[in-house]
Structure formats: structure tokens, C-alpha cells
Design brief:
By secondary structure, the protein is an alpha/beta fold. The protein contains seven helices and nine strands; from the N terminus they run E-E-E-H-E-E-H-H-H-E-H-E-H-E-E-H. The protein starts with a strand and ends with a helix. The chain binds adenosine-5'-triphosphate. The site of adenosine-5'-triphosphate has 12 residues, from helix 1.
Length: 255
């Protein structure tokens, strides 16, 4: 399934938050969204996921979700959102319940996603026994379990330390390289954007408009060894954001 954002604008109260967003999200690509604080990145993700309806414009879905998708648009949040009293397997099982799957099918899906996220040995652990990185792996496993057509990721690595972030980025690249998925990935972090994004959408200050779309034509798996080329892309992104980020920062201080 691929998505088109067709002229999306949105307000909260009298405040315009997003204006005239036109964007294509191709199947099998990771589209990163960056921009200054408060420019409407998370709002855009909620509109894409259908959690809110845009005041103007529409999110168009093309091609339909795969027949076995239990939740075509699936979120991964910064704070993991795990139930503390359920084990790793129990947290994943939760999203498979109420879909009419038998226990054997559920167990097979759980075992598969645990293996893909290197969590098989932690099946019976509780969230409090896991590091932040492991908790986010569980959240990724849970998202994969419902076979989403599009993954919607809102700052998924920003609660993690930089080493764990590196490891999780490698994991995401490994998962994508084995089975390419479609994702919209909101981040403040330009390193993440240039490591994970096939295209990077730069939003302006609020009301967020598309300022530029930077395409990075380098296979994800090759990126760790190509620091110089990536740093060029990162500099280009920063030059697009820098002045507006400073202005947005002042706006928050003055508020
Ligand atoms: N439900 C809401 N009701 C009212 N205002 C909201 C709501 N959600 C977000 N806002 C406001 O809309 C603007 C955009 O918020 P949003 O969280 O989408 O921006 P963002 O780019 O993701 O921000 P950040 O980079 O700080 O995470 C902000 O001014 C925010 O305070």
C-alpha cells in the first residue's frame, strides 16, 4: 500500500498547525519527517494514522493493505507503551487477541517476531526486567506482529542513549533489508534521518509546510560505512532547518 497526502491543512483552536501538505509515501520506503520544534510533525503522523481528521485535504490509501494485515496503520511510540504486568510474549499477544486467531497461529506469529527482533530468549521477561533498548525492541516486535502496511514511528529512539540508538538503527535496517516495509518516521535527530530515510521531508516552522524533500539514493545497508556522504546530506538538512529551529526555540522561550 502506498499513501498520498493531498493538500492537508490542520488547526488547533485558531492556531494553524499544518498547511497544504502534498506528499507521496511510496510502498517499501522509509519517509522521515524532520523540522523545528512544534512544526506539526506528530500532528501529521496522527492525521496519517487516522487518529485525527484533517481540517482540509485527505490521506489517500492506494493499493489496499495485504490480506493478512491485522492493523494496516500501526504506531511505534517513543515511550514503548508496554503493559508492565504482561510478559514480552503477553504484550505481543495482546495485539493479536480479538482477531479470531487460534492459539497456535498466535504463538507462531509471536515466535516469528521475537526471532526477527532477537528477543526469543526474553519471551517470559517482564518489561521492568528489560533495558530501554530491549523495551523498544518489544514494541517493534509487537508492531510487526500485526503485519502493518505502514509503520508510523514517532521519535521511536529518542528516549534511548546514543549507543542503544545505534544498535536499534542497525536492527531497523536489518529488518527492512530482509523484508522492506513502508514507514513514516518522525524525528528531531538528523543522524537518524540520514541513516534510515529513503526520503527526508523537511517541514517549515508552524504552520508546517513542506520546505524540501531530500532523497538519499544509497542503500540503507551501505550507510554505516559512508559517513562522509551522509554528513553532506545531514549538513544540507541542517542548513534548511537551522534558522527556523532557532526562531522556534525563541518562540518557546518567549511563550
Ligand atoms: N491536541 C492538541 N490540541 C491543541 N494543540 C495541539 C494539540 N496537539 C499539538 N498541539 C500543538 O500543535 C503544535 C504542533 O504540535 P506537534 O506535536 O505536532 O509538533 P511537533 O513538530 O511534533 O513538535 P516537537 O518537535 O516539539 O515534538 C504545537 O504548538 C502543539 O502545542
Amino acid at each position: 500500500m502506498h499513501l498520498t497526502l493531498d493538500g492537508i491543512s490542520h488547526h488547533y483552536g485558531g492556531m494553524p498547525v499544518l498547511s497544504g501538505i502534498e506528499l507521496s509515501i511510496p510502498a517499501g520506503e522509509i519517509v522521515c519527517i524532520v523540522g523545528p520544534s512544534g512544526c506539526g510533525k506528530s500532528t501529521l503522523l496522527r492525521l496519517i494514522g487516522g487518529l485525527e481528521r484533517p481540517d482540509e485535504g485527505a490521506v489517500l490509501e492506494h493499493g489496499g493493505a495485504p490480506a493478512d494485515s491485522l492493523n494496516p496503520l500501526t504506531y511505534i511510540f517513543q515511550d514503548f507503551a508496554l503493559l508492565p504486568w504482561r510478559t514480552v510474549a503477553g504484550n505481543i499477544s495482546l495485539v493479536l487477541e480479538d482477531h479470531g486467531l487460534g492459539k497456535t497461529d498466535r504463538d507462531a506469529i509471536i515466535d516469528d517476531v521475537l526471532a526477527r527482533t532477537k528477543l526469543s530468549d526474553f519471551k517470559t521477561a517482564l518489561p521492568r526486567q528489560l533495558s530501554g533498548g530491549m523495551k523498544q525492541r518489544v514494541a517493534i516486535a509487537r508492531a510487526l506482529a500485526v503485519r502493518p502496511a505502514v509503520l508510523l514511528m514517532d521519535e521511536p529512539l529518542s528516549a534511548l542513549d546514543s549507543q542503544t540508538r545505534e544498535l536499534l538503527m542497525d536492527d531497523l535496517v536489518g529488518l527492512w533489508s530482509k523484508t522492506p516495509f513502508t514507514a513514516v518516521y518522525v524525528t528531531h535527530n538528523l543522524e537518524e534521518a540520514v541513516r534510515l530515510g529513503h526520503r527526508i521531508v523537511v517541514l517549515s516552522r508552524r504552520p508546517g509546510k513542506i520546505r524540501d524533500v531530500v532523497e538519499i539514493d544509497m542503500p540503507l545497508a551501505e550507510r554505516p560505512g559512508r559517513a562522509a556522504a551522509l554528513s553532506e546530506a545531514r549538513e544540507r538538512l541542517w542548513s534548511l532547518i537551522r534558522d527556523e529551529a532557532a526562531a522556534a526555540d525563541m518562540e518557546l522561550v518567549d511563550a
